[in-house]
Amino acid sequence: MVELDVLPGAALELDWAVVRQLRDVVVDRLSSHRVPEAHQREHGRDIIRRTVTSWVQEQVSTGFRPASAYTAQLQQAIFDAVFGLGRLQPLLRADVENIEIHGSDTTWLRLQSGQLVRGPAVADSDEELVAELQFLASRAGRSLSASHPRLHMELPDGSRLAAVIATTRRPQVVIRRHLLQSATVEELVAKKAMTPGLAQFLGGAVRARRNIVVCGGQNSGKTTLIRSLAGLIPAHERWATAEQEYELHLDKLGRHPHLVAFQAREGGSEIGVDGRAAGEVSLQEIVRDSLRMNLSRIVVGEVRGSEVVPMLDAMSTGDGGSMCTLHARSAHDAVERLVVLCGRYGVAPEVAYRWIAGSVDLIVHLQMWDETAVGGARTRFVGHVAEVVGMGEGGRPALNDLFHTPGGTGEAVPTGIVPQCAEELRRAGFDLGWLQVSPSANGGLW
Are both 328 and 239 inside the same structural domain? Predict the structure, then answer.
């Protein structure tokens, strides 16, 4: 009788080559069975269990007996590889806000607290990392290769993955997580991202169908804020979200039964007669298509390219109430940013300024204070709200500052200026008394 060596599961690291090998077996077996999507994971676990059992029997025949703890660990790793993100899956902890990967062996986790901590290796080599990214891309109907070196995709938990290969020395991956996917305006007030008065004002603006641009720097909370504002749209309205990759996920919350969620689509490797990737559907086309679908308003997750033209078109010709996010360092910079984007697509600056003045009603600017370098934390809050009040001097839109943050308090308070849309706000149920200048005991940090 041959004496079997027992491999202690807790002490032995997984052989990721085995994980990939068995993952491919499981994927093949899954694809050969027509199982309803609702039962795929349950069916997958059964296939994984039987696949690992067969593998264990093969190991026993060679003189090794993997411990039960190790086989359980192997089964979970295969499940993550088939239905999750493989070796990336354990990094998606509740306290992790962003994941930054520089090659296979350098991982950084940015926590909600702002702390930056080192994470484990996510692959045994850069080539393996690229192969895993290609597997994730193929599963989502996207591609990643030397001829198509960029990958942008939504992950199963709603996070957004961006990867670049070939144009950098080592593969680069960033996973941005949205931990407040169902946040409401009331919750943002509780987190001191805004005062109750400002929350009442923004709610009135949404009900009054003001066109709103939410701007700020990277990671300032733009998506979270626009998600919470969109949650205030009346449930009976038929409206749409248009995104490059799904981030808002408002259609999953069950609050708006008439909501239509659009996502742009990447093209394939073939080039069509128009010079574009075959099958590509741009965000610009989606916004234009949505205007023909009896929608009351459109929310664009992020304006960063050609979609600026149909977005402003929707704001100027529709019934109002559309929203978008934009990278900009201030409310005033947001106007210039929109003009620059319009210029890239043939709109002259003087035309763009007039278009913005006649389309955008409010600009809401988010700020983030990052004091982690000196032992502090990161705080996010609405720092400025400006109303666009037509054309001003120099052929540029005039802005009235309705809320500002005096003295670095982290709390946006009324300036005392009565907005031009005051009557529309009043008819929408907003108490203009909230615009009176008075001290507030509420904080202003998020």
Answer: yes
Same domain, 24 and 131: no
- Mean pLDDT to the nearest integer, 199-226: 94
Closest to 88 (Cα-Cα) out of 120, 43, 48: 120
Q: Is 27 exposed, middle or buried (0-12, 13-18, 19+ CB in 10 A)?
A: middle
In terms of Cβ atoms closer than 10 Å to its own Cβ (0-12, 13-18, 19+), residue 151 is buried
Cβ–Cβ < 8 Å for 245, 263 = yes
Q: What is the Cα–Cα distance from 218 to 61, expressed in whole angstroms?
A: 55
Strand blocks (E) in 227-283: 240-243, 260-263
Question: Which CATH number belongs to the domain containing residue 311 in this structure?
Answer: 3.40.50.300
Q: What is the pTM assigned to this prediction? A: 0.76
Residues pairing with 376 in the sheet:
none
Q: Return the structure tokens found at 194.
A: 């805004």
Domain limits at 73?
5-83
Q: Regarding predicted confidence, which is higher, 11 or 303?
A: 303
Question: How confident is the model over 2-44, as pLDDT tens digits?
Answer: 333 333 333 357 888 888 899 999 988 888 877 777 788 888 8
Answer yes or no: do 149 and 216 share one domain. no
Q: Tell me: do 77 and 103 sit in the same domain.
A: no
